Amino acid sequence: MERLGIALPPDAAPDRTATGSSRPADITRSPENDEFGRSVVRALKGTMPKVGRTGRLTIRLLLDEMDKLQEVRVAKNEGDAEMQRMVLDAARRTRFPIPPKGATVVDRTFVVKYVYRR
Prior knowledge:
The protein has helices spanning 31-47, 81-93, and strands spanning 2-7, 55-63, 69-77, 109-116. It is α+β, with helices and mostly antiparallel strands and 118 residues long.
């Protein structure tokens, strides 16, 4: 089974737990921003690679004001180098939605956990 979810960033409040639908507490609260977050996860699910092994990998990505990936990096790797390469390549190929007008850097930052199980 393969799963993809949004996790809280490392600098989030320590009493919050990471779940598949959590985002930082200081994002802009609006229907447009909520839909943007769901659309980013859907886009990443659409490009999630089949790695053929068990492991977890958490990436941090930042989108620019349009729809381009500005930065992607590994936040935590509990897999192997090949899994890391495949996930990062897939994230770089993903076509992301355009953020809502006025979206802040926090609104455009995502920490995403890829979970691979057999």
